[in-house]
Amino acid sequence: xxxxxxxxxLFCLSSxxxxxxxxxxxxxxxxxxxxxxxxxxxxxxxxxxQLTNPAGLAFLTQKDVDVNFSFMxxxxxxxxxxxxxDGESNLFPLPSAAFVIPELAxxxxxxxxxxxxxxxxADFNLNHTLYTDQNGSYIQQKYHSMLAxxxxxxxxAYKFNEQLSVGLTTHIVxxxxxxxxxxxxxxxxxxxxxxxxNGMTFGQLFAAAPAQGGFGYTEVTASANMSELSAMSFNxxxxxxxxxxxxxxxxxxxxxxxxxxxxGGKANMDMTQxxxxxxxxxxxxxxxxxxxxxxxxxQGAVMQNFTNMGIDMAAGVIADYDLEVELAYPQTFGxxxxxxxxxxxxxxxxxxxxxxxxxxxxxxxxxxxxxxxNINTMMGNSGEFDMNFPLNWENSMLMKVGLEYLVxxxxxxxxGYMYGSNxxxxxxxxxxxxxxxxxxxxxxxxxxxxxxxxxxxxxxxGFNNAQTADATSLIANEYNSSTSExxxxxxxxxxxxxx
Length: 499
What we know:
Structural class: mainly beta
CATH superfamily: Outer membrane protein transport protein (OMPP1/FadL/TodX)
Number of helices: 7
CATH class: Mainly Beta
Helix content: 10-25%
Strand content: over 45%
Distance between the termini: 29 Å
Order of helices and strands: HHHEEEEEEHEEEHHEEEEHEEEEEE
CATH architecture: Beta Barrel
Largest sheet: 14 strands, antiparallel, barrel
């Protein structure tokens, strides 16, 4: 059973580099709701209520099978002092499926569903000041990220009477993560002590000014490739649905915070470029102090200095590690209103609060079993250490409004708008974590082929948003005062069979 579940998850996620519509979360999960701006907390009309307000399932009167396919096309751009480039263009599928059985038992409704719920990712080829060849030309580096999440399981709803119901969703959450990019640290993270230097660490040597015999680095950088990370966790959601009268519906939901511990990962850290750069600076310093020395003599002297510090230059500075990552997904609160103005026109609005600050404050990277003796020496450990990657995301408010108009017995038209405040602060914005889109418009329609089968379609546009990083980025110097941009377009189609 576990193998079957993982196979389904991998199929759904293998191409899913999902750009979230607020943070790492999509605005909704079904073309029917998405056509009206993703409003669904108080509109009780389809099986995807399992993810928005499970209590609303109690007001469905027929068995409902929904299959939804979404296709996303993001547009990315990044600019700093040495780059002004677009990200790679991609088209990503986001599948979901859900089934609802009303009145499975007296007053009880059951839902089963599997949903692609969000994530983020990007692909760039960028210049970096550290990575140059002997002629000073840039050697472009791969910048890649992927965080993809799907979830599935059961929902139940209990109807107290014709007006009030409560619901509960319990889901298994499956996530995957990858990163590849230059990874920078404060030099003082290197806590290994240099022999014969009265307790001086490699970090202090790399950070000290050249006039004091150091290298003058404000950061040290490794080419990092982190892959094969996956996580299995659990998520819960409760909902309340209340039909005030035949026209007015109210809804409330609450989603529990979810701890996500990615395991089974592999990390490759390559400090070759950084060490070569330091070696070059050391040679320049030696030749400045010894003007009559030849380049070969300077190279030999510097090589001996590194050997005296316990660094075997012939062994290199490339390490493989086992990797785990600790992260969390936020708790959320939502309130919805649905008002049937007349026989043809429905007006709906959702308001949501996402507690990003207690979830995406940092990622903790746990590396172990490091294979490079040189890196272990500089870091001052045996190949096992933790790093905290700062995120510092801020809490976000979402507002969705939507309209639904019954054109005739077969055709329904929809339109909507969503605004979600950007949770990513300027201190930690960088191009492969660009979840910064704020405003969306949607258009949609449904066509009833007969009394049982509906085809729902929606188009969604996330307007381009540009964000400039702080003059001193918490991630790396290359992002200082840089600008990241993101816009998205989605096509959604779903098929529903009600019987």
